[in-house]
Design goal:
This protein has a six-stranded antiparallel beta sheet, with no helix packed on it. A six-stranded mixed beta sheet has the order 7-8-9-12-14-15. A three-stranded mixed beta sheet has the order 10-11-13. The model has no long low-confidence stretch (mean pLDDT 96). By secondary structure, it is of the alpha+beta class. The chain has helices at residues 85-95, 155-171, 197-209, and strands at residues 8-16, 20-25, 30-34, 50-55, 65-71, 77-79, 106-113, 118-125, 131-138, 140-143, 145-149, 174-181, 186-191, 212-220, 225-231.
């Protein structure tokens, strides 16, 4: 996925009120950008960090700039825009990178399903039947090589796991949770049991119930982001 516009470099001053970030552009201009991430952004919001922004020409937007990437120590890029993860996964399905989700005739987005009035990120149809897919963006790492999800308590994420279990148990259909890992320095994904133990327990229940869980790591560049490689999901 290439960014539709060239990204603009800046330095992070602070992230606050969840959806706002004060930054200073390379030309010295100070401004407020939209932060498209509802999580804690653990390890990804250190003041002074190098960041990249996209700019919209939509006059109706209150904040023209959107925070897209942050650079961590060692030059590691992390994609913090959770709104990009579904597009990345869809692109990877259609290009055959996510082989586990290949062979379907149709992909529909935001399809209502489940007993808790959820919307599946994708419903794949055709082939041997339907497959419900939930996508979660992963940005946090707690130690070398280990990414974790979630980075804050996620009642919504736990709800989606329950809905996926219902798809398998009650409808007899296929259900897949796909972790979209927007950072290059990790080799596996684990549930963040210390942050959200309920999510961790529910993830293990989902696996036992037949929900498939996969993780794909992205290649990150200021010009483009693409899912490239499957990495293991470890639930010790």
């Amino acid at each position: 996925m290439r960014f539709p516009v060239s990204l603009i470099g800046a330095r992070l001053t602070r992230r606050y009120k969840r959806f706002l970030a004060d930054v200073t552009l390379d030309d010295g201009t100070a401004l407020t950008a939209h932060c498209p991430n509802t999580g804690s952004m653990l390890g990804c919001q250190l003041p002074g960090s190098r960041v990249w922004l996209s700019r919209s020409d939509n006059p109706k937007r209150k904040y023209a700039y959107t925070w897209e990437l942050v650079e961590l120590d060692g030059g590691v890029l992390v994609g913090i825009n959770t709104g990009r993860s579904n597009a990345l996964v869809r692109e990877a399905i259609e290009s055959g990178v996510i082989g586990e989700l290949g062979g379907y005739d149709e992909i529909r987005a935001e399809v209502r399903y489940g007993s808790e009035n959820s919307r599946a990120d994708f419903l794949l149809s055709g082939g041997d039947g339907d497959c419900y897919v939930e996508v979660k963006n992963v940005t946090a790492a707690v130690q070398d090589g280990v990414a974790v999800f979630p980075d804050a308590v996620s009642t919504r994420g736990t709800k989606h796991l329950r809905e996926l279990m219902g798809v398998v148990r009650e409808a007899g259909k296929r259900a897949v949770l796909c972790f979209c890992v927007q950072r290059t320095d990790v080799d596996e994904v684990r549930p963040a049991d210390d942050i959200d133990p309920v999510y961790g327990r529910t993830l293990r229940e989902a696996l036992a119930a037949g929900v498939e869980v996969v993780a794909y790591r992205a290649e990150m560049h200021p010009e483009a982001v693409v899912l490239a490689e499957r990495i293991p999901v470890v639930c010790p």
